[in-house]
Write a structure and sequence with these properties.
Elements: H1 6-13, H2 15-18, E1 22-32, E2 56-58, E3 64-68, H3 75-92, E4 97-98, H4 122-138, E5 148-153, H5 156-161, H6 169-187, H7 189-195, E6 200-202, E7 214-217, E8 220-222, H8 239-242, H9 251-261, H10 267-272, E9 275-276, E10 279-280, E11 298-301, H11 310-317, E12 321-327, H12 339-354, H13 367-379, E13 386-391, E14 396-401, H14 402-424, H15 428-434, H16 437-441, H17 447-458, H18 462-478, H19 484-507, H20 512-521
Antiparallel strand pairs: 1-3, 1-4, 1-5, 2-3, 5-12, 6-8, 7-8, 9-10, 11-12, 13-14
Helix pairs in contact: 3-18, 6-12, 7-13, 12-14, 12-15, 14-15
């Protein structure tokens, strides 16, 4: 199904542009002890400062590691860096290990889940207080869910080759990425079906609230056809955010709605207040404390400086790249993502960027696309499942079988895999796309189905199964120590980060209250 439009032709005629695509990964993973219980120890000193180490930090909890790669022009280089970081971390964790599943291990009581600490600098305290606010708003348990974020950018020249109209390079780039995001929103249910790997959860995570979940054993709850409970309403529920509908038709409307969310008070958060017993407990009482609080499957992104707000950076310099946030940790991979998944992601995102992407109707919402996504994460493997395919240009929709639509999308993505292979050599991209066909013909071959079958076959709980898997991954990583040069580089990076944190703490010249006020004042109306 070779695309006939000029954009695809431009890709095939300019393979050098495809070699300039950049991808990066942020991979989260809980630190646990040898029994699979959340580690409540401080961030290991050997990993450096969580505030300033560019490759190893923490997310919500002090126990939630986040390993970050730089940007790479090839999948091989990307995963090599992620693998190096995992090998280094595994060597430093002593008796602890990384939990290799998106849904959390056995967690202690809410009060005992440690919030990430970044030192006493104003920058570090801002990150810490923001996380205190997340605990107040959503609870700590939900914040311990982990995933893989896939960052992706295209060279600026590509938007001009695509004929994207705009007053500047930044304008064309932003329009191109928003078109990508609209298509991603339409088709991201496919990623959850193909790669979702969290159909079950430990009963302790639900705090006794079973809802519609079924019991697989005394410790494991699941949904029989689920693909990713992490991305379902079991993983995240919040009324304030549920009423926030961001628009991806144009950057101006997107930024205006985001600005409104980070400046509009929310009654329940006003009732909490910003201080308790003289200490900060949240940065403000708005719908969102800061832009990053918005939980979405994909985000338009722009790197920011110290004390710079994302909305302001996007308004002034446009979208720089996109961040895909819906990938589950791959339980079978020691680094949480396989090469095949990464190759597929590149082809899928290139498809989303290149294909026609009509505006969403009316106010920019995408009700049917959100509905498809929500249905697939909870019932994606249900025989005969029907989704709603919208024609946004005609403002019409029709019912279509998931398997039929999925196979059609594979055919449409395949030419982009071929274009990437033509640019890079080999057949990694085509093989990665072709490998997804059997999953659509037989749902038992999806990761979510295979996980449930493994639990049943072994007669084992999700917790014990994941603990055994995580131990095997740790042992495999430790069995491949870094070479002397890389080991030295990682140690030096950790040591330097400690020095950088100390410098920040020593150089602050204003109190935290003033810093927070300045941070909020840095937000400019788009």
């Amino acid at each position: 199904m070779t695309p006939k439009h000029s954009r695809y032709t431009a890709l095939r005629q300019n393979p050098e542009l495809l070699k300039k695509i950049l991808r990066g990964i942020e991979k989260e993973g809980l630190r646990v002890d040898n029994q699979g219980v959340l580690a409540r120890t401080p961030h290991p000193g050997a990993l450096g400062s969580a505030l300033t180490n560019p490759r190893i930090t923490t997310d919500y909890s002090e126990s939630l590691l986040e390993m970050i790669t730089g940007t790479h022009t090839t999948v091989a280089a990307l995963l090599e860096e992620l693998d190096d970081t995992h090998r280094f971390v595994a060597q430093q964790l002593g008796q602890e290990l990384i939990w290799n599943q998106s849904m959390p291990a056995h967690l202690p009581a809410e009060a005992d889940i440690p919030i990430a600490w970044y030192g006493t600098s104003n920058t570090g305290m801002l990150k810490h207080v923001y996380r205190r606010g997340l605990a107040e708003r959503y609870g700590k348990t939900m914040q311990c869910i982990a995933g893989v974020h896939y960052n992706f950018s295209l060279p600026d020249e590509i938007w001009e080759r695509f004929g994207v109209r705009g007053s500047s390079v930044e304008d064309r780039r932003s329009k191109g990425y928003l078109a990508l995001i609209r298509n991603f929103t339409r088709y991201s249910w496919l990623l959850m079906y193909l790669f979702g790997a969290s159909p079950a959860v430990s009963s302790t995570f639900m705090h006794g609230a079973r809802q519609s979940l079924q019991s697989l054993d005394a410790d494991t709850l699941y949904l029989p056809y689920a693909t990713s409970l992490r991305m379902s309403d079991f993983g995240y529920q919040n009324k304030a955010q549920s009423e926030l509908q961001l628009c991806y038709n144009d950057i101006e409307t997107f930024l205006a709605r985001m600005y409104n969310a980070v400046t509009k008070p929310w009654p329940a958060y006003e009732a909490i207040g910003t201080h308790r017993n003289g200490e900060w407990i949240q940065l403000n009482t708005h719908v969102l404390q800061i832009e990053n609080e918005y939980y979405s499957t994909i985000r338009p992104k722009r790197t920011t400086g110290r004390c710079e707000r994302p909305v302001t950076a996007l308004a002034e310099r446009g979208v720089q790249y996109i961040e895909v946030r819906c990938l589950d940790i791959d339980p079978d991979s020691p680094i949480g993502i396989s090469p095949q998944t990464s190759y597929f992601m590149d082809a899928f995102l290139l498809f989303c960027a290149t294909e026609e992407s009509p505006f969403f109707p009316q106010d920019g919402t995408c009700r049917h696309s959100r509905g498809n996504f929500g249905l697939v994460v909870k019932e994606g493997r249900k025989p005969g499942l029907q989704l709603i395919r919208s024609d946004d240009a005609a403002d019409s929709h029709q019912s279509v079988g998931l398997a039929d639509w999925g196979l059609e999308l594979i055919e449409r993505i395949l030419p982009y895999a071929e274009a990437l292979d033509a640019a890079h050599g080999g057949q990694n991209y085509v093989h990665a796309v072709e490998a997804q066909r059997p999953k659509l013909s037989d749902s038992e071959q999806t990761p979510s189905a295979e996980l449930l079958e493994a639990l049943r076959a072994d007669g084992i709980s999700l917790h014990d199964y994941t603990l055994q898997q995580s131990q095997r991954h740790r042992d495999a990583l430790r069995a491949r120590p870094l070479n002397a040069a890389m080991q030295h580089e990682m140690i030096q990076m950790a040591a330097q980060s400690v020095q950088e944190q100390a410098h920040l703490e020593q150089s602050d010249r204003e109190d935290f209250d003033t810093y927070v006020a300045r941070y909020h004042a840095a937000l400019k109306r788009p």
